[in-house]
Amino acid sequence: MKTRKYSPLSRILHWISAAVIIWATLSGFFLATLTAESPIRGFLSSFNISLTTAFLPIFLFRLGYAIASKKPEKLSVPAWQQQAAAAAHALLYALTSVVLVSGVLMMDQPIAVFGLFEIPNPIRDTTWNGRFYIAHRMACATLFLMIAAHGAAVISHHRAGRRVLARMT
Question: What is the pTM of this model?
Answer without folding.
Answer: 0.91
